[in-house]
Specification:
Blueprint (H helix, E strand, L loop, with lengths): L1 E4 L2 H10 L7 E4 L24
Parallel strand pairs: 1-2
Length: 52
C-alpha cells in the first residue's frame, strides 16, 4: 500500500502511524498528480481519503 500526502503534518502523522507496517509506504507528494492505474492491473484496488 502506498500513501501520498503533501501536507508536512499529515505526512509525519501517517509515517508515525504506519511505522510498524512494512507493507505500507508513505510518500510526500500530490495524490492528484498520480497517474491512473493501467488496465493490466488484475487485482482489487481501493482509494482511501483521510482528513482532519
Amino acid at each position: 500500500m502506498i500513501g501520498v500526502d503533501h501536507d508536512p503534518a499529515m505526512f509525519a502523522e501517517a509515517r508515525r502511524r504506519t511505522s510498524g507496517m512494512p507493507a505500507v509506504q508513505i510518500r510526500e507528494g500530490d495524490a492528484h498528480a498520480c497517474p491512473p492505474r493501467r488496465a493490466r492491473h488484475s487485482g482489487p484496488g481501493q482509494s482511501v481519503i483521510c482528513s482532519r
